[in-house]
Amino acid sequence: MVILDGKKVSNDIKNEITVQVNKMKDKGEKVPHLAAVIVGNDGASLTYVGSKVRACERVGFESTMVRMSNTTSEIELLDKIKELNQNDDIDGFIIQLPLPPQINTQKVLMAVDPSKDVDGFHPENFGKMALDMSTFIPATPFGILELLDRYGVETKGKHTVVIGRSHIVGRPMSILMGRKGFPGNSTVTLTHSHTKNITQITSQADIIISALGVPNFLKAEMVKDDAVIIDVGISRVPDETSPKGYIITGDVDFKNVSKKASYITPVPGGVGPMTIAMLLKNTLLAREQRM
Ligand code: NAP
Fold first, then answer.
1. For ligand 1, atom 21: residue with the closest CA
2. Per residue, what are the HEC states of the chain?
3. pTM for the model
4. Which CATH class name applies to 28-113?
């Protein structure tokens, strides 16, 4: 069994990006600038945005964190997006989700200039991705592709089962694994909360990508021998023995599933760090496209 070490690979990617940023600096060019907008005080969201900003500093990007209160109106957020769209100094920006209930998420994501949409959530970019055109691929699916690529995991002709159909992970992942190319050329089954007999489906999978957010959902008996297991889930499970009062747990019962898997991502240290690295890669791409 091989651990797909997202921490190591993401560090390699960050080092590669740092080299490119240093070259830009040497030539006197502007370095990439990522802005992150966070509305409200959700603890997990603040942690994610903090990690993204620190990652920017690590590779030599400029970064800006825009904090807005929990009572921000939709109009106020749309005005802020307009400002970021027009700000020539910003190459790309993200709106950290989830947003408070008074704000229509779809409307907000539609307002982001597609050329600055480094999360790849705008319908224009999502459509380009589905049509195999060059675009910003959403960071988590992009990170999974990169992990599969760097470890040389064969995907052609394999049966990939994706669990979860969210717009940010499961749905794009199912499209990407079925596209012509590598990683891709898989036969894909997309499952969700209405899927019947899910064990019957997962136990036929060569590759399982689990993105539902239910801790330890995928058990050893749901997996065939030598399957490739990608665990996207991040859940905070209460744990009195941990200083934070919780531990981060994935969708996969790692202890038992890892005994059967050929490749598996750990949680933490698998898909999570890859997501941040690929956001940086998209931001670098956004800068290059604006040169
Ligand atoms: P989401 O929007 O919460 O959607 C969950 C999906 O799982 C839905 O499609 C839902 O089906 C499906 N689902 C729920 N219960 C199910 C069941 N019992 N059987 C089969 N499918 C079921 O999910 P998300 O935003 O993609 O996030 C999923 C997990 O990944 C969360 O733990 C999140 O924190 C984590 N995540 C991690 C990263 C990372 O960087 N590692 C990035 C993003 C998200 P319906 O559509 O029918 O409701």
1. 192
2. CEECCHHHHHHHHHHHHHHHHHHHHHCCCCCCEEEEEEECCCHHHHHHHHHHHHHHHHHCCEEEEEEECCCCCHHHHHHHHHHHHHCCCCCEEEECCCCCCCCCHHHHHHHCCHHHCCCCCCHHHHHHHHCCCCCCCCHHHHHHHHHHHHCCCCCCCCEEEEECCCCCCHHHHHHHHHCCCCCCCCEEEEECCCCCCHHHHHCCCCEEEECCCCCCCECHHHCCCCCEEEECCCEEEECCCCCCCEEEECCECHHHHCCCCCEECCCCCCHHHHHHHHHHHHHHHHHHHCC
3. 0.97
4. alpha beta
